[in-house]
Every structure is written in structure tokens, then in C-alpha cells.
């Protein structure tokens, strides 16, 4: 309730929120940073960057989200580092922070997560998250690499790879129709699960293109 009331003041609340960034309580800082983000990117990038190193992970994540919204290059480099982390939870969190405004470097790193490694349950979780994030970004230039995954074969990991292919095809619904229609038409020609998903996605893309 209090957060809603503060946000109702709009831009008039910004200087007062910035003045409270010295508060030592992590939950207060988290809420202030969230409120600043709802006001939209402004000139407080320098004041928020130190919170990327805050002791509380919830504060760090909200600061990172807000700086990414502002297009901050330091925040973008942090996401790139987190995507390369050996810790899967750190990687998944970084993947979840990407969106259609993410720069090409982040899209390429997400693509590397999809195309590299094996098909264990943990790796597949990360690959699926990366595929969804790439769909949100929707850059047509990465489609040739996804096509390579769709054309790949694995006797030992057939089921896992098949699920990944279906996830990729679903994600194609988020790309520009002109870029994916020929691909979906070709993939829908078969009779397996991948072809059936391609047929479903083809109908979705065609309906959006009307």
C-alpha cells in the first residue's frame, strides 16, 4: 500500500527515493530500487551501480534489473559474466534478466548456451531458459544457428534433444513472421512430434501475420 502511494507521486517522488538509498535495511533498499525502476530510466545510474555488489542478492538483482532497463553497459557486462558462471542458478537468473532490449553480445552468449554442452536435466533446464530468452529478444540473425540444433541428431539423448527442438519451435512464434514462416512450413511436413509442433506454431504465426 505504501509503495503504491509513493509511486502515485510520480517524478516528484524520485529525489526522496534517491535520498533513502543510504538506508541499511536490505528490504527497504530493494523496494526503493523497484520504485525507481517503475519511474523509468533517469540519471541515477551512478548511484545504483554500487548496489551490484550489495551483500543481499535480492538488492543486487533489483539493481541489475533497473540498470539494464537504463541500458547501462556495466550492468550488461555483469549479465555476460553471470551467463558464463559455473553456478547454474546464477546463469538462470542472468537468463531471466534478458529481454528484447538486450544487446547482440548477450544474444550470442544465450545462443552459445543452447548450442554447447550436453543434455543432462540441469543443462536442458538452462538450454530451455536460453531458448525462451532468445525468443523474447527475437533477432532473426540467430535463426541459422537454431536451425542447426533442429537438424542435429543424438541417439543417447534423443528425448532430451527432441524436447529442446519443440521448445525452439515454440519460441519461433516470437520472431518476425517473414523470417520464420518458410522454416515452419518446411518443418511441418513430417509426422513426428517436432512436425506437429511446427504445424501448431505455423498456424499461430500465420494468424499474427494477418
Core attributes:
mainly alpha; 210 residues; elongated
What does this 3D model show about the protein?
The chain has 210 residues and is an all-alpha fold. The chain has 13 helices and no strands. The model has no long low-confidence stretch (mean pLDDT 92). 27% of the residues are buried.
Give a brief rundown of this model.
The chain is an all-alpha fold and 210 residues long.
Structural class: mainly alpha
Beta strands, count: 0
Q: What is the tally of helical segments?
A: 13
- Shape, principal axes of CA atoms: elongated
Run of helices and strands: HHHHHHHHHHHHH
Helix content bin: 55-70%
- Average residue-wise pLDDT: 92
Strand content: under 5%
Rg over C-alpha atoms, rounded to the nearest angstrom: 20 Å
Biggest pleated sheet: none
Low-confidence stretches: none
Span of the ends, CA to CA? 43 Å
Q: Layout of helices and strands, plus pairs?
A:
Blueprint lengths: L1 H6 L6 H6 L6 H14 L5 H4 L8 H13 L3 H11 L4 H9 L7 H12 L5 H17 L5 H9 L6 H14 L5 H11 L5 H17 L1
Amino acid at each position: 500500500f505504501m509503495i503504491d502511494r509513493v509511486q502515485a507521486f510520480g517524478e516528484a517522488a524520485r529525489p526522496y527515493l534517491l535520498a533513502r538509498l543510504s538506508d541499511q535495511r536490505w528490504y527497504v533498499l530493494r523496494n526503493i530500487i523497484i520504485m525507481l525502476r517503475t519511474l523509468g530510466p533517469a540519471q541515477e545510474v551512478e548511484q545504483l551501480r554500487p548496489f551490484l555488489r550489495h551483500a543481499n542478492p535480492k538488492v543486487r538483482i533489483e539493481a541489475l534489473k533497473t540498470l539494464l532497463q537504463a541500458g547501462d553497459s556495466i550492468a550488461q557486462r555483469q549479465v555476460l559474466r553471470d551467463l558464463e558462471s559455473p553456478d547454474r542458478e546464477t546463469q538462470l537468473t542472468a537468463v531471466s534478466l534478458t529481454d528484447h532490449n538486450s544487446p547482440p553480445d548477450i544474444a550470442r552468449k544465450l545462443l552459445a548456451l543452447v548450442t554447447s554442452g550436453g543434455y543432462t536435466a540441469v543443462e536442458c533446464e538452462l538450454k530451455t531458459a536460453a531458448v525462451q530468452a532468445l525468443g523474447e529478444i527475437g533477432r532473426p540473425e540467430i535463426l541459422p544457428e537454431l536451425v542447426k540444433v533442429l537438424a542435429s541428431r543424438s541417439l543417447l539423448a534423443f528425448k532430451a534433444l527432441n524436447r529442446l527442438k519443440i521448445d525452439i519451435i515454440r519460441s519461433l512464434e516470437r520472431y518476425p513472421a517473414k523470417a520464420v514462416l518458410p522454416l515452419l512450413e518446411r518443418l511441418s511436413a513430417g509426422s513426428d512430434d517436432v512436425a506437429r509442433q511446427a504445424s501448431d506454431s505455423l498456424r499461430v504465426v500465420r494468424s499474427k501475420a494477418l
